[in-house]
Design goal:
The complex is a heterodimer of chains A (486) and B (207). With 486 residues, chain A is α/β, with parallel strands linked by helices. Chain A contains 17 helices and ten strands. Chain A starts with 9 loop residues before the first helix and ends in a 16-residue tail after the last helix. In chain A, 59% of the residues are buried. The longest helix of chain B is centred in the last third of the chain and has 16 residues. The chains are: A alpha/beta (486), B alpha/beta (207).
């Protein structure tokens, strides 16, 4: 039966739960009642929802790194090393686990033991099971969240939530389209309804688990309206299953005005759509991801990119910021590099938070454009679904109405093409089938044309490629004569 | 086929269709073979070198793959792009099916050291002996000196190893040279010698 945006029935959930827990030997140890008890006993200082609430109230921006290694004792040491310089902690899951390839994760653990260093790009939480994950949680005094990129995250959710993780990143779209090739959207959405329902069940027992849909998507020149549409859909799907604490995300684009407008519009649109759907007892927060594209290899230059993101997040008033490191061009950072990224971010955020940045007319204009774009696209999504959001979403991706640039999934059209304008803001170069209002399209066309005139070349895929490479070459905009900068 | 290579001679057609025969021992031979291959690559009416491209293992990084595809196609290669999350077996299947000259493996997520283990042996077992193997990206976990990483992957049997910051045009130029050397049985073109019009290129061992 095709999935619909309806709360999963108890008997359906229970039957499915049995299969999920049997899918790997560490599953059967998970006991929901035990998990609830453990969660209820956590101090509020270790609860994500509490800390997010406090941050929003105080106007603070919480710092969070990414961090995951193969061996349990090293994961604990890593997080304990990061804890003093951040506000909330992660456990970043390895890529094999994300595709449910737990046997390959096992091999990775063994190889890491003999190599004396982590050979995995994250922590294989399913392999360590409830006991191992609980050890991680016990070793910390701040809240910890599961961060990953997993189309089928059901077993991972069962284990980590029972273990005391109080926040769970991802969603049926945001953890499919950028993270998978052949997983049907209906399948991942349905699997994420399970995860959201599990969160809803914890909520019914008095345990509030935070849910964070993944904003940056492909992390490459994603126009704000595109990620906002996905965020709102995933937020609504989570709320429907009983989740009540939602953090909507956005990946830095690089143009300050656009980024500030993106965070403001994300929160406002979230409220608008959640309330229109009849929800009124949820908690909403925002998360800003520092630049998710290519980084300069030079570490000093990497710090600049990191701090620009820190400034944007602070000016925008994001509840939380996900922090990059000076090793980003090489991938997984050392724990020292991770600390350095956090320290640089903290410095910038502190200094920015001590001053007022008046909301400008330019920011207001960007907010209005984003809102009009999101409303236009989402109303079409709803239309396509004949009132059902899941079916609407699936149809919208098939029709290319929802289209995420540069994503690997077969179910993504990949026709929408973005490009920066002459100010570095991300605009639409090729619209594909995305139903934007005519005057908004003209706006995009004009801004792109202005850049083309300035550069004396046509706006084309070549220009987009230049933009993709620009920041690694020390510029925001991929000008034609970029070459090597000093 | 417009160019044939026999034990002693190269036979080929010139621009006006006239027939040429050159003794393979002649010191201009390399020059001619190289020039001919370059002509092949820029003239789409002749058969193009075929390469298989993809991102190995459980890696979902797709942006670089799309850009590589674009650059390689523009340079005249026939690209079989398998996209992301490609297994060793899938690379090899595609190479056999399309009679590929080279396989270009990308890896960005850090599991390259695990995913690429045994790839050369796998190719050999499936009958792809001596197929050109390139690997590029962030090939190990974390920041390690490139020479160390290169050594590791050369030892695994890759012909060339590239970091994620390499200029893609340089990669394609190198690939053209390696394919030309492979196709015409030239065991190696002199390292660092560029093809230039009118310049004698010393002949190395000709198979």
């Amino acid at each position: 039966m095709a999935p619909q945006n309806k709360i999963l029935e108890e008997k359906v959930f229970t039957a499915e739960r049995q299969a999920v827990l049997e899918s790997w030997p560490t599953g059967p140890a998970v006991d929901f009642t035990g998990g609830v008890q453990y969660q209820l006993a956590l101090p509020e200082s270790k609860r994500f929802s509490t800390v997010l609430r406090w941050a929003d109230k105080q106007g603070k921006t919480l710092l969070q790194p990414r961090a995951g290694v193969a061996l349990l004792h090293e994961q604990i040491a890593l997080l304990q090393h990061l804890e003093p310089v951040c506000d909330v902690l992660p456990t970043t899951i390895d890529a094999y686990t994300r595709l449910n390839r737990y046997d390959e994760a096992d091999t990775g653990i063994v190889k890491s033991q003999s190599a004396g260093t982590s050979m995995l790009n994250g922590f294989p939480a399913v392999n360590y099971g409830l006991a191992g994950c609980r050890q991680v949680v016990e070793s910390l005094s701040k809240p910890v969240q599961v961060r990953h990129g997993t189309p089928d995250a059901r077993l991972l959710a069962e284990i980590t939530l029972a273990a005391g993780y109080t926040s769970y990143e991802g969603g049926g779209i945001s953890y499919n389209i950028p993270y998978a090739k052949k997983v049907p959207l209906e399948t991942s959405i349905r699997h994420w309804q399970y995860c959201d329902r599990l969160v809803g069940k914890y909520e019914e027992e008095g345990v509030r688990i935070n849910r964070e849909p993944f904003g940056p998507l492909s992390g490459t020149l994603v126009p704000p309206f595109v990620s906002h549409c996905v965020m709102i859909i995933e937020g609504l799907l989570a709320l429907e299953q009983g989740a009540k604490c939602i953090t909507l995300g956005y990946g830095q684009g690089g143009n300050l005005v656009q980024d500030v407008a993106a965070i403001h519009s994300l929160r406002e649109l979230g409220e608008e759509f959640f309330q229109a759907a009849g929800f009124d007892d949820y908690e909403l927060s925002t998360v800003f991801h520092q630049w998710m594209g290519g980084f300069p290899e030079n570490e000093s230059k990497a710090y600049s990119v990191i701090c620009w993101g820190a400034a944007a997040a602070a000016i925008a008033g994001a509840t939380k910021i996900i922090v990059k490191t000076p090793h980003e061009a090489s991938g997984v950072p050392t724990k020292e590099a991770n600390v350095q990224g956090l320290q640089a971010t903290r410095q910038t955020i502190n200094m920015v938070h001590e001053q007022n940045f008046p909301f400008s007319a330019a920011m207001e204009e960007e907010v209005e454009i984003i809102k009009r774009e999101v409303r236009a696209v989402l109303s079409r999504v709803v239309e396509l679904g004949n009132g059902d959001l899941v079916q609407g979403t699936v149809q919208a991706f098939t029709a290319g109405i929802l289209d995420i640039p540069f994503a690997p999934a077969d179910s993504n059209a990949g026709v929408l093409l973005p490009v920066r304008d002459n100010n570095g803001a991300i605009r639409v170069l090729e619209q594909g089938a995305v139903p934007l209002p005519e005057d908004v399209l003209s706006f995009h066309r004009d801004r792109v044309a202005e850049r083309a005139r300035h550069e004396n070349r046509d706006a084309s895929f070549h220009m987009v490629v230049d933009d993709v490479n620009a920041i690694a070459k020390s510029a925001l905009i991929g000008r034609p004569s970029l070459g090597q900068r000093g | 086929m417009a160019l044939t290579v026999s034990k002693y001679y190269l036979n080929f057609k010139g621009l006006r269709g006239e027939h040429h025969q050159v003794n393979r021992g002649h010191h201009h031979c390399q020059y001619i073979l190289w020039g001919y291959t370059m002509q092949q690559l820029t003239d789409h009416s002749l058969s193009l070198p075929t390469i298989v491209l993809g991102v190995i293992g459980a890696d979902c990084h797709a942006v670089g793959n799309k850009i590589l595809m674009s650059v390689l196609s523009q340079q005249g290669f026939n690209v079989i792009n398998l996209g992301v999350m490609v297994s060793q077996g899938e690379f090899i299947d595609a190479a056999i099916e399309n009679q590929a000259d080279a396989i270009l493996v990308s890896s960005i997520y850090g599991h390259g050291e695990i995913d690429c283990q045994g790839f050369r042996e796998h190719c050999n077992r499936r009958g792809l002996k001596n197929i050109i193997l390139y690997v590029g990206g962030n090939l190990v976990i974390g920041k390690r000196p490139f020479l160390e990483v290169e050594k590791l992957f050369l030892k695994m049997g890759f012909d060339r190893v590239f970091s994620s910051s390499v200029d893609l045009e340089a990669v394609t130029e190198q690939l053209k040279r390696d394919i030309a050397a492979q196709q015409w049985g030239i065991t190696s073109l002199p390292v660092g010698m560029l093809y230039q019009s009118g310049v004698d290129i010393p002949v190395e061992a000709v198979a």
